[in-house]
Amino acid sequence: MNSIEKHWYTPRLWLAILLAPLAWLFASLSAVRRLAFRIGFCKTLHLPVPVVVIGNINVGGVGKTPLTLSLISSLQARGLRVGVISRGYGGRHRVATLVAADSRADEVGDEPLLVAASGVPVVVGKDRVAAGLHLLASHPDLDLILSDDGLQHYRLGRALEIVVMDGERGVGNGRLLPAGPLREPLSRLKSVDAVVINGGVGAGFPRLPAALPVFIMTLEPGRFVSLANPALTCAAADFAGQRVVALAGIGHPQRFFATLAAQGIVSEKNISFPDHHAFVPEDVPDEADAVLVTTKDAVKLQRINHARLWALPVAARLAPDLADWIIVQLKRR
Questions:
Q1: What is the pLDDT of residues 292-329, one digit of tens each?
Q2: pTM value?
Q3: CB 152 within 8 A of CB 163
Q4: Where are the beta strands (DSSP E) in 68-168?
Q5: Which of 21, 97, 123, 307 fits as disulfide partner to 131, beta carbons 3.0 to 4.6 Å?
Q6: What are the boundaries of each domain within the chain?
């Protein structure tokens, strides 16, 4: 975490003063852009099927991908055919691209590759409308599209907006980029349809609009999976007596490290990289008996195929049931 990111959650006066003009400029440009879509100067395009946006108003990992995977499973269990569109951050694609079984994370992004592993069709593209049209062209039988991120992509029409927030970190100092972690002001929450809070709510969590539906998400860890042999799994207790290193290149690596500690795993070293980090073999420490990673990082480490690499899958549990709520809201609209 660099100095500016630290400032977002542990404010320093000199940085606040230095970054204030840039935050004002960002706020002004964002406001003009939102107004352009509101008055119709810029056009919003709607796809033939409902689009549910799963996004956030702040940067950094908040748990959108586990939520997306949970919703895919729950909606499919209710008989809906679901597809996903995403920007594919970190990929090299320039046009809307269907994620294939042999796609690489450096081509389509790590999160889309992880979502595609669930079996649903996924299309990545900077232009979400083009991505949605490409998805429907290849899978015209879809009932619903989930947009992984895209809350600020106003060109894409949406039936529902669901914002994911980190319960512990909240919105930091509550300021807009780059003075704070916010992409949009907190007032944006007045216009979204629901908020999902990941984990317990900390003391600094902002007050939400009274009428806004709120869902609590809990991430439950499963058994560790060997990257060298995915059929091989083990429990946290199986690492007892081994030299363990934790490796994470996600938006909020401390959550992963804390999850390992909560399972009784004693890590000799916790190594964090920037979100969407492109791993190379040299990033994997030689001194460890076992290197524990997230499933998001595992898709980038898979080609390294290191026998000491183990990924920890997590399952998102929501209360109340978010999939049922989405279906009810879509029927009403």
A1: 999 999 999 987 868 899 999 999 999 999 999 999 99
A2: 0.94
A3: no
A4: 82-86, 97-98, 122-124, 144-148, 160-166
A5: 123
A6: 38-80+143-219+317-332, 223-312
Q: Which of 281, 284, 251, 252 is nearest to 269 (CA)?
A: 284
* Pairing label, strands 122-124, 51-55: unpaired
Query: How crowded is the C-beta side of 272, counted as CA atoms within 13 Å?
Result: 13
Query: Average pLDDT in the 132-154 region?
Result: 97
Hey, what are 254's tokens? Answer: 């401390």
Strand order in the sheet with 97-98: 97-98, 122-124, 82-86, 144-148, 51-55, 160-166, 194-198, 214-221, 314-319
**Sheet strands side by side (includes 233-234):** 233-234, 224-226, 309-312, 290-294, 244-248, 269-272
Pick from 26, 5, 7: nearest CA to 16: 7
Mean pLDDT computed over 169-175 = 93
Cα separation values, 330 from 52, 131, 156, Å: 9, 22, 17
